[in-house]
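Subject: histidine kinase structure
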Amino acid sequence: MPTQREVNVHAKNDRSTFLSTLPAAQSDRTAALAIVGVSAILFALAVPFAGKPLIQVPAFVASYQSALAVSDIITAVLLLSQFAVLRSRALLLLSTGYLFTAAAAVTHALTFPGLFAPTGLLGASTQTTVWLYMIWHGGFPLFVLAYGWLKDDNGGSKIEGPTARPIVLAVLGVIAAMVVIAWIVTAQHDLLPVLLRDGRYTTTMIGVVSFVWSLSFAALITLWFRKPHSVIDVWLMVTMCAWLFDIALSAIVNMARYDLGFYVGRLYGLCAASFVLAVLLIENVRLQAHTVGLVGRLREQSASDRDFYSKRLALYGAVVESSNDAIITESLDGIITGWNKAAEHLFGYSAAEAIGQSIYLVVPEDQRAEARGMLNRISGNESIAQYETVRIRKDGRQLDVVLNVSPLRSDGGQIIGASKIAHDITEEKQSREKLRRETEERQRIFETSRDLILVTDGFGNFIQVSPSVKDILGLSPEDMIGHSATDFIHPDDLENTRSEMRAARRGQTKRSFEARYYHFDGHEVTLNWMGTWSEPVKRHFFIGRDLTEKQAAEAQFRQVQKMDSIGQLTGGVAHDFNNVLTVITGTIGILADAVADRPELAAITKLIDDAAERGAQLTKHLLAFARKQPLQPREIDVNALTLEAAKLLHPTLGEQISILPQLTEDAWPALVDPGQLSTAILNLALNARDAMPDGGTLVLETRNIFLDDGYASMNPDVVAGNYVMIAVSDTGSGIPAALIERVFDPFFTTKEVGKGTGLGLSMVFGFVKQSGGHIKIYSEEGHGTSVKIYLPRSTGVQETEYEALQNVPITGGDERILVVEDDALVRQYVMTQVKSLGYTALEAANAAEALVIIDTDKDIDLLFTDVIMPGNMNGRQLADEAARRRPELKTLFTSGYTENAIVHHGRLDSGVLLLAKPYRKSELAKMLRTALAS
């Protein structure tokens, strides 16, 4: 692209600048000093001979005065020309001083004796010219003094308004002043003291001339101290030096007219008038030469500009035509005046078809008011940037475009139309919308994912954390964002995690590994991680799946496998042992008859027979555990069987233990071997007795139960369906948590040696499983134990009133419920059920967490808490503290113990609401509504 050249009109120290404001250069000072030095030397040489008489040459005076007058007038004119621009009062006074000097020189010449008349014109006398000389040489220093006081580095104070008027007034003032002075020194000369007698100076003359010389010296000193000095200031000081030499030679050291001092002083005066004039003339010539050169350069520049603009116009035309965006110009009434090739391609109309048509050609009807409004804004000198709108092609297809509209101006600057740049964003908008949907979907996945999604920087600091962290780790995203992952990962898994992150940065994507994180309540949560590294954004992305459920299911499966394996082994051993016992018991009778007459041997035989009987009982228990005992199931009334068992237990358990039957009405019949069931209840009662050495309460309870799919998913050996529950609960010492999983193992017992075989519970377990049922133990150390037997309901019976009640439509709600449960798996199951009923569910693992939530969330409607929990506060105490803080808060308890067991163990007040585990969804819904309405 051609570039435009520039003309430098004047630089900072260009000599064409006005001399009255142009700072004096060192060269100016050096030249002035040299001239003053030479003048001083010549003055010193002339002083001794100043009084030497010379030939009288009146023509010299005329020539001198004429040259002086012309020089001063030209100088005054040049200074006034500067004043016309700068308006400086100081310049006006200085130029007036030169006009005064010129007028005085002319008047002096006219009145000088012997030039135009023997005694001079205008009625001059012998004192006229000498007084004019003194007034003339004293007047100019006064003007210089005034100039020196008024000037500054910017030319001094300014005159407002037109400059012609002060110039005319200055000229007229000088003329008027000179007329008055001429009248005084001619017509009134007799009133003036005598300065010149017989061609020689009087004493008065010495005083007057000394005063005039002092005025000139004062003007020189004023100029010296009034800095900064302009060029005129420097040469005006040279002028005043010559002026001092003029006065000294012409009127002080000489003796009379026409002596050497007279002639040389006049020469100094002429020089004094010439210094400033010469500088001004030289600068004026330079200015003229500079102006001529500048005009030439401007002509060259003009030709260059014409070439530049023609090329630029051609280039702009090429740019417009080659632009990928549509460029359109239109008049203010909407008529298209310009249409480039991109517009043809975008809208489908050729330039010939579009130019001259209304812009409505490409504007949909419902957008025409918008187009008119845009033109109105343009006519108001407003530009429009990045305006998204819709336009229409020739084929009728709509386009999404973004417009940039600017006013189009004429050479005179008037707005005559609009220039539009239209960029097609149809595909871009579609891509943006697609990206928006994808981003929204990803955000929704991020927010609703049940897996834990983490984003960290290269140093392992969390950038983003999915909301699922609340369910998995009990933390909020804000608790983790900004913190290092090392604050949450188990120390033993840190190095492995770092190794996986390093591997990901080396390009090994989709890394899968396990690492344990700490839950808010302190327990460990094992997660399986999929991780990858994004180099463009320098971020790690992790997806962690909580393995708690999987590990629990695997543990349960392993327990089932273990029990099955033990059962198979036990069954095999019992079978073979039974074969051995068959031989022993079959032959012991023969042996007993043979030794009947020998008492000592008969006693041994009886001992062997008793041992064989005990062995038979043992194998019977082992076969029951192995689920290989012969059963004779029939439909029975569990309530009647339980009551019968309670009667038999009274003498067995002793007086210190109270037996409390709690039987539900309309209990379903069960298909089970009644003898084995009675034995199972007896075994459970005997275990309960052993757990209550100081006495207590034994609760025998029956209940109709439905185990749903949720419960079945948590217990792999359970089939969802209807069951009759028989619960045996005690208020004894309870079972340690670490031993709960082993209580059904054969030969495992916590009793002292000789106090039990460890086969009681294992026999009950085998009997229940062989009967197609389920058994569950709830126990807390120091509180007691509840063993629940779930037997399948007998089929082929009528629907009971209980079933009808349970099958009514489920009613949910929208209240906020706080679920407090220490078992993570159970808590997750309860949260799912509560949310499925429409409630807003919050969760806590213990009483401390629950109280924090109760304090921060004032909108909680119901506290749903387990009764027995580890820690310093159980569910009953939590409810009491919550009621103290929030008296209006409702409470619903839940427990693995039955309601009757809990109440009679003294842990809950009579009348409180308790939902016993397990429960079906309809029971949960009913109890939640009951609690909220209480």
